[in-house]
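Changelog-adjacent note: as of this version, every example in the card shows the full chain rather than a window. The one below runs 125 residues end to end.
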Amino acid sequence: MRKNSIKNTRINNEVLRELSNIIRGEIKDPRINPMTSVVSVEVTPDLKLCRAYISVLGDEESQKSTIEGLRSAEGYIRRQLASSINLRNTPEIKFILDQSIEYGVNMSHLIDEVNSNINDNDDEE
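Full-length structure tokens:
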């Protein structure tokens, strides 16, 4: 099976959806921030490993504690994933912190500041 095959894409989307549901609704760990989202999922073609990219809205301490909480609940999450998705192998999940959404929000604020400064300078002239 090729890496970008239709079957692999379908599996990635299904795992993404189920993983989001499990993290949002079934895990009661207080370390996990309620503003946690699964950005993307990459399941290897042999279904042995899954890289889940997680975005956490909050400070750095909140992000670290959320990743720690997810790593400690990895067995439970994998078991729930196995019961909800019928796959030959249930992949081992590796949680990776993804800060692209936070980076985009910061860049958007910087662009807005620059635009407001340009507009203020135009009004003065």
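Structural remarks: The helical segments are 6-25, 60-72, 74-84, 100-124.
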